[in-house]
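Posting for a labmate who doesn't have an account.
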Amino acid sequence: GDREAATAALAELDLPAELDADAHRTVASVLALDVAGDDAATTRAAEAVERAVRPYATPNATFATLGGFADVLDAAARERPGTGVALALGYDARVPALEAWRDHAVAVHADVREAHTGRYEGVFVVRATDRTADSVGRLATVARLVRDFRSPEPFVLAVGDGLAAAAAVERGAADAMSAVAEEFGDDTGAWDGDATRAVARFDADSEEAEVIAAVREAST
């Protein structure tokens, strides 16, 4: 989502004005090395980055690649659901959808870099900042990205203000979020998701340590 950073990175590669196959391979290689070679990257990062460097080209569609369209659609659905629906139905919503994607990307990537984290046996916890703490959609993306690129544990819990998101390598996300909603939700508790990605709403006054303990128990 950061145009200036992307432009600066590309400028260092001395690419031709018209990108040929070799130029595309150069960009893909630099991206893969930057992601997988980061000191904080996990072994899963090398697998996850393939989605970005090997997208399906769709030159005649609204977006140049199928992967890009999926990313924009997912972000728009989380930031501005109406825009996401319009884009999915084929209406001319490219510009507002890209704006939603950029807003989403800037917020969640900042949290991935800067949020306080804690490692517990089997669970890696990300404590959301003000950028994402009150947005279940942003929390869900933070949890997914940390699971794929940063977490040394197979299960990630992102905690916000009465909101939580879980991302698991194999299973446990739905069980964990349903437990949080049931144990700490009172009348406002709710959850949604599946075995690998789920979210929950609960009482914001709940003790974080107790929420983490419940997640650890339910996710194993």
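Reply:
Got it, the structure tokens are right above this. The chain has a mean pLDDT of 86.
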